[in-house]
């Protein structure tokens, strides 16, 4: 009696990781990218320079993109291709300031064809699919970033497990 109530709360749906270099952030992204499937949604929240696009670079590499990653500055969504015809969508919602504008993006049709990575997901809050992997990145030091992962839904618990194993063996 009493022991369980004194144990720290272990939240299986979330994970905190400190990346010590851009390479480490890319490597973690690559491990996740390698297992992404059409319909998967990964949200990347964090200030400018937090490492969102750096993480996407790793995801795209691990996924097998034929195209290189660039920040979607003038267009909202970049589309990356793979040799087997699969697609990876990379959205930057920073400039979306109205819901009608965002609704035109038609996330559903993107998700039917590929996985989706969203930078600034909080800007399209109501449109983000209920189930997703949410990653919050924060600047700690010049080369250090805190990455807080939160899984919503069974598929994302599985992806979080892969992240957990990657970190454990890094
Ligand atoms: P965002 O897309 O969030 O604005 P970027 O990925 O474009 O951020 O930029 C992150 C910058 O921070 C890059 O210049 C990257 O090299 C640098 N950086 C330093 N340390 C890290 C780290 N641990 N993880 C990710 N990026 C890092
Ligand atoms: Mg960016």
Name the assembly state: single chain
Low-confidence stretches: none
Beta content comes to 25-35%
Rg result = 16 Å
Put simply, the count of helices is 6
Bound molecules: adenosine-5'-diphosphate, magnesium ion
> How many strand elements?
7
The secondary-structure class comes to alpha/beta
Largest β-sheet summary: 7 strands, mixed
Describe the model.
The protein is α/β, with parallel strands linked by helices and 170 residues long. The protein has six helices and seven strands; from the N terminus they run αβαβαββααβββα. A hairpin with a 5-residue loop joins strand 3 and strand 4 (87-92). The structure holds adenosine-5'-diphosphate and magnesium ion. Residues 52-53, 71, 119 line the site of magnesium ion.
Q: How are the secondary structure elements laid out?
A:
Elements: H1 3-6, E1 14-19, H2 22-33, E2 41-45, H3 52-63, E3 77-81, E4 87-92, H4 99-103, H5 107-113, E5 114-119, E6 132-141, E7 144-152, H6 154-168
Parallel strand pairs: 2-5, 2-6, 4-5
Antiparallel strand pairs: 1-7, 3-4, 6-7
Helix pairs in contact: 2-3
Bound molecules: adenosine-5'-diphosphate and magnesium ion.
